[in-house]
Fold each of these.
Amino acid sequence: MCAVENMESCLIEFQNWITEKAKQDPYFAGTFWLVLSALEEPLLARALRLQAHFTSRDIPCADAIGEVIVEGRKANQTACFWHLPFHHHSIHIFFSLLKPSKAVRFAYRFIGRARGKAQLFPLGHSLIRSCARLNAAYPLERTQILRGISYPSRPEDGGAEINLKPGNAIAFLQKVEDDRRVLKSARMRVPVDEGKFCEFTIGRIGYISYHRGTVAPLLDAILGRLSNEMVESARPFTEAGDHFVGLRFQDPIFGDNRSFKDVLQALARLPRMSMALIHANPYFHATLTNYEDGGEFDIFITDPSTIHLKSRGETSPASFLRLHNNLSEVFREAQVSIEQPKRFSLSDLLSGRV
Amino acid sequence: MPSVQNTDEQIREFFSEKHKEYEAFDRTLNALASLKYVCSFVTDIADETLICNFRPRLKPATATSEPFTPDAIIRQNRGVSFLIELKTSWNKQDVEQIAKYAKSPGTLRNDGSVEPFDKHHCIILGYQNTPGEPELNSLFARLAKDGIGFPLVVIRYSLEIGPEGNRMYFVRVPSAKNGTCPKSSLGKAFNSVRGFPVSAESFKFVRGGFHKANDRIIPSYAGVLWWTVYAKYYLNDEQKAQMAERGRLESPLIVPVDSLDNVPIPETIEVPFTAKDVRNALEFLRQAKLVLLKKRKKYYEIRLRSDKRIRAPQVSSLLGGVAEQDIANRILALWATYKVRDPIKECSRKGAGAQQRRRTKDSRTGFLPFSGEG
């Protein structure tokens, strides 16, 4: 791992290397995978089976590599994830050289090795919006969205993934908000200086893939502003302990029992878990055991716009994030808060206010 | 041979019956959670409450029987105590049970000593389906005959859907003979003619702690909870790794019968399973053919799989809408299907007996030198 005093030069070396690579390859995709984990680095390295010594295809400054081999029908396929030592928080950065669409399968296998102690950090609408502006001197409307893929936020709305009409970022993001769609990925060209730009793709599942242009402002944003925002948005899960975590959605989407089916479907998409519906009439109560990370949850819906998660025992923030992400993909972004039981008086009880 | 249509109808009937029972039991747990919430977060009541025990053991009046297990004992200051028993509907045995509770000298502490009931003691008996007047009269008459000096208050509890949200409603039964709770804030709430509701929004904060009522759990509920919550605790490290990576075990999970007494208790559970509940759960799962009992080897063999690997039975109309997504309904549907189509055949004892008789009748031993009259 780079010493702290060498970090600056390490980062510059990496920037130069990736810029040079991008110049050589017109289809270059250097992908930064953003991984939330509360584990210390040595423990994370052990969990992800990272190797500290590697020789081939060296990435400047990378301090460890994780190799993932997937058995294919004709031949085995391999993908490498390099750990970059630049992070400051519980957000770890892994780097890969495959196109994100090809690497995603490997990435899930790679992260899965940590058995829930690490999780790709989903980049929601607000984080994507934040990434679309890398220099405060240039307004958001100067950012060009080259390609955007979205899907409907509510299952009953129907429709599949669609390519949104590209254009300036303000109009594009406004359209996504107005149509209540979930943005899956967006390729954008962001101005960073006069005549200079950075072109990258941002993926909801938790990656930013650099293609061309000036990389420094993008890396600065990832390591600074974006990481801070991510840590801040995961704070309720870090502090949740045995409290209730409320995921409050903008609209009253759980007005009737039929919507509970969508909740079950959203949760059932999580692999390797066991879930029992304790009660669906008149309110929703399910119990969930996630064998991947051992997390146990009670899930309640007692009002039309909120899902409450209650963990039993010690549950990692990444485990909460996994549930949150799955639900957000179906029901759009939710405001996360920790909730405490209210106190009432006897007169409240007798007048039906408890 | 029964027609397919009849078989399907039978399965549907079994499923529906089991499902109703499951939901009714769940309502009882909601009611217990509501009472826990009231005793913890309604400040007037919380301030007066000294002990709120949802796993009490009562000392029987006669030394010969096992300790009784009502649903709750709430002890408050100024010598007030409530014994709470919640039921789904009337049963003839209720009279006897309440009479036994009434005669009990007090609760058993962990060290085996008895903590007598307080000066202002009362029994609260709750029903989802209110019994008729003759049943209630028989209950009050029995207590009067036994000379019980404290009140019995019969209440009704129900989960209601209203404009303010879903709420658990408690209200005293309007019977002339119904008792009156002692003077305390909780007593005042139970004495209220209009009753009191506790919203699901509130009691959900404590609901997860109730896996069962103190004295009982129905086998279907036990089976579902065991599969989704307790099974995890029986896995060794290697098996945990297999479940984490593949969502299924490479070899069956073995739970020896003699290890069932050690029940793993998940954290933050107020009323967890006992050994008896685990046996009930495994028996139900055995009937749903998710668990095998190897009687000779004395262990249960469980092919533990995550949700998606348990296939719902073919009678698709059983599971519709919300139900098809979840494991509770799939387990109940499996149980109902096998109950009708392929019930488990228990080993016939008749055969074993006949074999035994043949052995005793064996005349060949008569030729041995030490047999017969000698």
Note: Chain B has eleven helices and 13 strands.
Amino acid sequence: MNPRLTFATAGRVLRQVRGDHRTLALMIAVPCVLIGLLAWIFNGTPVFDKIGAPLLGVFPFVVMFLITSVATLRERSSGTLERLLSTPLGKGDFLGGYALAFGALAVVQALVATGFAIWVCGLDVAGPRWLLVVMAVVDAVLGTATGLFVSAFARTEFQAVQFMPAFVLPQFLLCGLLVPRNGLPRVLELASDVLPLSYAVDAMRTLTTQVDAAGDVGRDVAIVAAFAVGAIALGSLTLRRRTP
Amino acid sequence: MTSDESPAVVVDDLHVIRGSREVLPGISLSVPRGQVVGLLGPNGGGKTTLLRSIVGVQIIAGGTVTVLGEPAGSPSLRSRVGYVTQEASVYADLTVRANLNYFAALVGAPRSDVDRVIEVVDLGAEVDSRVDRLSGGQRSRVSLGAALVGSPELLILDEPTVALDPVLRRDLWALFRRLAEKGTTLLVSSHVMDEATRCDRLLLLREGRLLADDSPDGLLARTGAPNAEQAFFALIEAEAAA
């Protein structure tokens, strides 16, 4: 990996997103709208305090998954990826560039969404608030890495978009938001143990309920980060300089 | 310097299989340095596969491809070989300048080189336009420009003049000539036979086999044909008769 090439790639990706005002607006505004809706629906009940924070971890994962899978599919199908891999750019630079760019966008998204949830919707957070943002950014990088990986298996943008329900919704169902994970049938509980979103949601929940949450949350952050690194490694296997 | 005497590209007994079809069933050729070499032949004849093998992005089944003295696709070649695919492979949602800046960064070329290239591909008026707002011809010149930054020693161009109007085609061939005069080696594919006269050397490729490797004059003298297209037909008939 060459930091200069990684940063050049991250800059290029950010420049592409910056030119697309609507995507940028959706990325920032949609999580706030959903959080706002949720707070409104459960107005006067304790439910929002329970699921508001976990959802702050789910949104960046979903959004970055979608955007990255479509963006890298475009790179694959437009010939730019083949061209890039015929230059000195390394696979690590390509993946690192995307992770950096979307990680940076995730910081903005997480700051806005978390701020909105806490100050506008009145979300109660017992633990340190900055950890909410850290978790959200790690989730976003996980979404980026997973999206990059699965884009290798999509031939069209239609397929890429449908990987979202295929990859994300099962994790959403099993992550403990609907039924606590230890209340799931044994097989499903085991399945939820190997899915990254479970740890993201665990971390967010711990943060909202425990004052000294840093230790447990740190462990969950590390687990999700490890999943992200694993997905990036898998993604790099799908980038081939030589193709048939 | 003896290394400059060696050919820019040497292909030896190259076999490439795509799917169940052997696209290149053992082809050998060489491309001399500092020349404009035309790779001509009908569509589906293996031109793109051969070019991809030389760039080093094609999985090959056998044989060797040596580029600037090193195996094709070697890391050290990645900033010395420029490759322009048939489709304009640049970022449609970036401006011309942003595209060229990025590709310049990848090969370590200074920003000043981007200005030079913009001049060379004649996109001065469009530098701040997004690529998806440009015409097809302008877009393919952006793609060409992205390969020109950093002044690679070898340029591999896959059908760069396809779908361009006659004036642009003439300008582009004049540009190729100027680049060759400065020492760049160009391997340019085309299925338009009348572009043959603009090359120093011609490779005629049909169904994965090399029908001719000659200068344009040599080709006409050998076949007695009045132009490259007729020469090509004469070669096909001669092969069928043999």
Note: The first helix of chain B runs from residue 47 to 55.
